[in-house]
Design brief:
Chain lengths: 177, 501
């Protein structure tokens, strides 16, 4: 796997300093997560007498994670390691968009984005499945239109039959306005 | 002994009900399908099919889910041998010698040894689960919170030791998993922990969402990156499905050793089928008088790992059914399936619901028998499935996962969380972090914290209780020794690396 993938140079000045970028940035991310967890659990009561409070365990483990993050990061700084593989953008992005479209349209959602209410109507399972299938098809480099349409119709039909008719799960199938 | 026979009789009378045989067959078929198709693993499949089992009776649901797990171990070998792509992570090592055998025109022998080895291992493991069930259950009743906590620590350390790559990074994944499991309401006080005031997080992050993201979506994203070269399916007609006498003689020892090794690694928390197959292959190569034949079509290199992965898949039910502790991600999903049906995994299952416990065990043997038939005469059917191109397969997996996650709670947020974990999983792999220890820790997290808190409370805040109670002290000592042994080569190697510079 690793041999086939392209590798990206890690940024200019760091290139000479950081010998194991995978470990370095991995450790850095652990530190950030640990800091976030410590901050998020800072308002929770801690040890009360013999009893653990709700905040005790999260703080213990976040502290441990912070420590390991620092060690991993330092190892990345001093010990030579493989470069970070380049991240694909198109594939992951389209897969995630497909999943999000499904999540947003299957029942409809309402979100407040910075005070602006956004309402996506519930289109139901059939359109949601069909759209998610078609969008994720684009993630592949070998997209073919007719084949994709046929496959999307077939898969949607299969899912509806399986989940709604055979298993009797309560799904809204078509748009309701 | 007569108890065991009576129990097995009860089990078979449950498993042989036409409906349960049907569920068993369905599980075995789906498992084989998943095993044969590369790019979709057992964890994602069991997670995907969890909602399907809502409407089924509990025994049927668990029989089917179990069938998927061990069925995948059979199916995975078919793809490894014929296409040189592991259909399942557990049959990676089967590629080495299995595909070489196929190229030498001995695909039939490789397939049949893999299936027969798996069947033998399955039979032994079934008996083992039945035999160990009762004693371990009575042992479990002696366990207090301190012992449970120590046992889970040992399990997580095993997961670290057995994970490939850096020990330190595996420990980091364990702790990250534990932290993630604490998101949501506190068990005792109900206080919202690390929820960032997001209402959807107040119930915690659902395990199926994490599993589906890390093992389903991340896997797809990763596969899309690799070039989809045409698969090198062995074209020649598969002939001679019956192994020769010589094949059987050559592989019988390997099958037996693989079974023993796999059974042990399956029972250990943190182990499981993947580790078992690797360990069995390495062991077999060390044992062999002709290690140079390995990698060039040695039948022992197919027999041992295939027996081991199937044995481990089955014995990993032992800690789940007796102690209530899932040793790996698939078993963690089984906990989910049991909880949905109101069954609390643990020593009570065997006492309160003997027909469920023994029915499941008996169904494993029946399932193994079915799998030999499904896999050997019908191998052509499964091979033709491999011609389905990945570009059609992965969108199907995506929508199926989406619908599956959504239907568990009718919650679009769950689907969103799974997508986020898909991206996290992709990032983790790029930085050499293994997702498997994270998932195990995520599952054990709430149980661990609960037992830790309870033990501390009972001991009036004295942390030495974990060391002074004999069982828990021994378990923790074993865990510490294992961790040190695992760290040693790393430290010495790094030192060397530093010195070389």
């Amino acid at each position: 796997m690793a041999e086939g993938a392209k590798t990206s140079p890690t940024g200019g000045i760091f290139r000479e300093k950081i010998r194991g970028p995978r470990d370095f940035f991995g450790g850095l991310a652990l530190i950030v997560i640990a800091a976030l967890a410590i901050w998020a659990s800072s308002n929770l009561p801690g040890q009360q007498g013999f009893a653990f409070g709700p905040g005790t365990a999260p703080r213990i483990f976040a502290g441990l994670l912070m420590f390991i993050g620092v060690v991993v990061m330092l190892m990345g700084l001093f010990i030579k390691g493989p470069p970070i593989e380049s991240f694909a953008v198109r594939g992951p992005a389209l897969v995630v968009v497909a999943i999000l479209i499904f999540a947003a349209t299957v029942r409809g959602i309402r979100v407040d984005l910075a005070g602006i209410p956004i309402r996506i109507p519930g289109l139901g399972m059939v359109p949601a499945t069909f759209m998610a299938f078609m969008i994720s098809m684009f993630a592949s480099r070998e997209f073919r239109l007719v084949e994709s349409l046929l496959a999307a119709v077939a898969m949607t039909t299969f899912c509806v039959v399986l989940f709604v008719y055979v298993l009797g799960l309560p799904f809204q199938l078509w748009p309701m306005f | 002994m007569s108890d065991l026979l009576a129990n097995l009789w009860l089990g078979f009378s449950v498993a042989a009900l036409p409906m349960n045989i049907g569920f068993c067959l369905l599980g075995a078929l789906v498992g084989t399908l998943v095993g044969v198709l590369p790019g979709i693993g057992t964890v994602a499949t069991v997670a995907m099919l969890l909602p399907i089992t809502f409407g089924l009776p509990p025994v049927g649901a668990l029989i089917m889910l179990a069938g998927i797990y061990y069925g995948a171990q059979y199916g995975g070998s078919t793809t490894s041998i014929l296409v040189n792509i592991p259909g399942e992570a557990t049959s990676v090592v089967t590629c080495l010698d299995g595909h070489q055998m196929a190229r030498q025109g001995r695909a039939g022998a490789a397939l049949s040894i893999a299936a027969l080895g798996s069947f033998f291992a399955g039979c032994v493991a079934t008996v083992l689960v039945a035999a160990l069930g009762a004693p371990l259950t009575s042992l479990a009743l002696l366990f207090g919170p301190a012992e449970y906590f120590a046992l889970m620590v040992l399990g997580l350390i095993f997961a670290v030791v057995l994970a490939k790559g850096s020990v330190l990074k595996a420990v980091a994944m364990i702790i990250l998993g534990l932290l993630l499991s604490m998101v949501g309401s506190d068990l005792e006080t109900g206080a919202g922990r690390m929820t960032f005031d997001i209402a959807e997080l107040s119930d915690g992050i659902g395990f199926t969402n994490v599993a589906m993201g890390l093992f389903g979506f991340a896997e797809i994203i990763r596969n899309l990156e690799m070039s989809q070269e045409s698969r090198d399916i062995v074209k020649a007609k598969i002939s001679g499905l019956m192994p020769t006498r010589q094949d059987l003689v050559d592989s019988s020892g390997s099958i037996a050793r693989g079974t023993v090794l796999g059974s042990i690694l399956g029972i250990l928390p943190g182990g499981g089928a993947i580790v078992a197959s690797f360990a069995a292959y390495t062991f077999e190569k060390r044992m062999s008088k002709h290690p140079e034949r390995f990698g060039h079509g040695a039948i022992q290199g197919v027999a041992a790992p295939e027996a081991a992965n199937n044995a481990a898949a089955q014995t990993s039910f032992i800690p789940l059914l007796t102690l209530g502790i899932p040793p790996n991600a698939v078993m963690a999903l089984m906990v989910g399936a049991m909880t949905i049906h109101g069954i609390v995994p643990g020593p009570q299952v065997m006492i309160k619901q003997p027909e469920l416990f023994w029915g499941m065990i008996a169904s494993m043997w029946l399932g193994n028998l079915m799998l030999v038939i499904i896999n050997l005469p019908l191998v052509g059917v499964w091979v033709s499935l491999l011609r389905v191109p990945y570009r059609l397969l992965f969108p199907s997996i995506i929508v199926f996962c989406c619908i599956g996650i959504y239907s568990i709670n009718n919650s679009p947020t769950d689907v969103l969380i799974a997508a986020i974990f898909g991206l996290i999983g992709y990032w983790l792999v790029k930085h050499d972090f293994e997702p498997a220890p994270l998932v195990l820790a995520f599952v054990l997290g709430p149980l661990m914290e609960e037992n830790l808190r309870r033990a501390m409370l009972i001991a009036r805040g004295d942390a030495t209780v974990f060391l002074t109670r004999p069982i828990s002290g021994v378990l923790l000592a074993v865990a510490a020794i294992l961790l040190i042994i695992a760290m040693l080569p790393m430290i010495s190697k790094k030192r060397e690396a530093v010195f070389v510079e």
